[in-house]
Amino acid sequence: MIEPHAPAPPGSPPDWASPARLPVQPDTGRFLVLSCVFVCAACGLVYELELVALASYLIGDSVTQASVVLSVMVFAMGIGSLAAKRLRWRAAAGFGAIETILALVGGCSAMALYAVFAWTGDWGGLWGPRWLLVAFSLTIGLLIGAEVPLLMELIQRIRRQDAGGAVADLFAADYVGALVGGLAFPFLLLPLLGQLTGALITGAVNALAGATLVLGLFRRDLSRRARRLLLIANLTVLGLLAAAAVLVDDFERAARHAVYGNDVRVALQTGIQEVVLTGGTHGRPLELFLDGRLRVSGHDELRYHEALVHPAMNGPHARVLILGGGDGLAARQVLRHTGVQSVDIVELDPAVVRLARHDPALSKLNGRVYDDPRVRVTTDDAFRRLRTMPPSSYDVVISDLPDPGITASTKLYSQEFYGLARRALAPGGRLVVHAGPCADRPRVFWTVEATLRAAGLHTAPYRVGGREAGFAAGPDRSAGASSAPRDWGFVLASADRTPRLGLDPHEPRLRTLTQPGLTADAAAVRATRIAGLPASTLVHPRY
């Protein structure tokens, strides 16, 4: 028969606040708790960064996604800290349960987001990636926020000390762990394991750390039934994470086919971006995706590249600089003109250049331009390359870069960037800029034009329509994206005078672009002008 406990003397601590019965010395116990704080903080920051990175890739606009994840997560951490006060009387069991749930949710969050993106494509719906991102940020934030009060209670139960000293010790371990997690994600987990496997392994480490602390150090605070349940729960979570890690390659292949179709030929994670090539064989049109965005479509790339290149080549064009364009397709159009002496391509990702050189379908499409001795490639950031370039180096500068609506490319559409491009132009030289779709995003298009004028350039905007629905930019990913822009917008610019928007009648015959069509499209673009837009700068991007 169990005797009832005698009432505690007035002023004495409750049973749950009494010193813990540890299997080790108190100093060793404190070290183990602080070590667990370190590991849990590192895992928590990896979850946070993984959500930001994956959301930026899947949804686009990294600034917005980072703001959403961080703000929701910090808010949820505050709510979780308040909620954890109710668990103080069962601090060890509560902490063990929280770490088990956090390991499962955080470890599987990347796969869940990618699965919803791949198989639904429902961006704004109830279960779309945007709302799922918020749900994961909220849940993970609640669980991380609940950790600190419970760990504070556990460390105080080992040996009572003043609150300021305990907080200092706990937060020191927490912040150092966050530093390690923050550095491990971009330099270790992401390049070596990828986002999905990295998140799964982080979840496993999280579960092991929590279970080891509670079942090893504070096991006497738990009933036999609680120890058994916690052990079973952790083994189940570890088993699920391990099974997911084993199947992650098959999952990625299936998800990639769901996104890009069944004829994926090349899929590379280069350290800069994901590069995917589909088609190009058995009569299927070649398609090149960079970070999920369709950058080249065999259906309509000729229309885009003829419109980008040939109006700028109507004049002196001995020396040509192509910013971006590592696929070689812009260079193919440049080399159709007589009198071209050199073509310098500045491409950030060397993997794209390798594919353009060696992939049979892509090299055939670009006319094997890299075999031409006039073509030289520099793998560098376009902004950095322009800063080191001597003045008056080129007759023509072609900016074949991602749309300005993509946050990573914002600096390449800034007043500072165009000022550097202006300096690189020889007298009478011309700069042409791919400025995004005009019909669908006129404000972005006219902001590019205003930014060029702010850099001291005279402009002639134009467009070309008839693009395939699949040539998606911005957040539209799948090849069948119905919301893909309907046209391409361009701006031709010169430092000396307003450039004449025309085609050289003595140069090659074009298949998709004519002088009457170019003139009509330019007139249609001018009718959509939005006046008074400010320029975009490095410190104040407007896109």
UniProtKB/TrEMBL annotation:
Instruction: Give the bilayer topology.
Output: Multi-pass membrane protein
Give me the segments passing through the membrane: 31-59, 65-84, 96-119, 131-155, 167-190, 196-217, 229-248
The entry's keywords:
Cell membrane, Membrane, Polyamine biosynthesis, Spermidine biosynthesis, Transferase, Transmembrane, Transmembrane helix
Annotated spermidine binding sites: H305, D327
Compartment(s) where it occurs, according to its Swiss-Prot or TrEMBL record:
Cell membrane
Work out whether the entry's keyword set contains DNA repair.
Answer: no
- State the pathway, as annotated in the record: Amine and polyamine biosynthesis; spermidine biosynthesis; spermidine from putrescine: step 1/1
Q: Which reaction does it catalyse?
A: S-adenosyl 3-(methylsulfanyl)propylamine + putrescine = S-methyl-5'-thioadenosine + spermidine + H(+)
EC numbers listed for it are 2.5.1.16
Q: Which domain of life is it from?
A: Bacteria
Sequence ranges assigned to domain PABS in this UniProt record: 245-495
Per the record, the major location class is membrane
* Catalytic site positions: D400
**MF (Gene Ontology):** spermidine synthase activity
Detail which positions bind S-methyl-5'-thioadenosine: Q273, E347, D381, A382
Please report which protein family the annotation says this sequence is part of.
Answer: Belongs to the spermidine/spermine synthase family.
Subunit note: Homodimer or homotetramer.
Looking up NCBIfam families in the UniProt record yields: MFS_SpdSyn, PRK03612.1
Q: Which PANTHER family match?
A: THERMOSPERMINE SYNTHASE ACAULIS5 (PTHR43317:SF1)
Function, as annotated:
Catalyzes the irreversible transfer of a propylamine group from the amino donor S-adenosylmethioninamine (decarboxy-AdoMet) to putrescine (1,4-diaminobutane) to yield spermidine.
The name this protein goes by in its record: Polyamine aminopropyltransferase
The protein's organism comes out as Streptomyces spinosisporus
Taxonomy, top ranks, is: Bacteria, Bacillati, Actinomycetota, Actinomycetes, Kitasatosporales
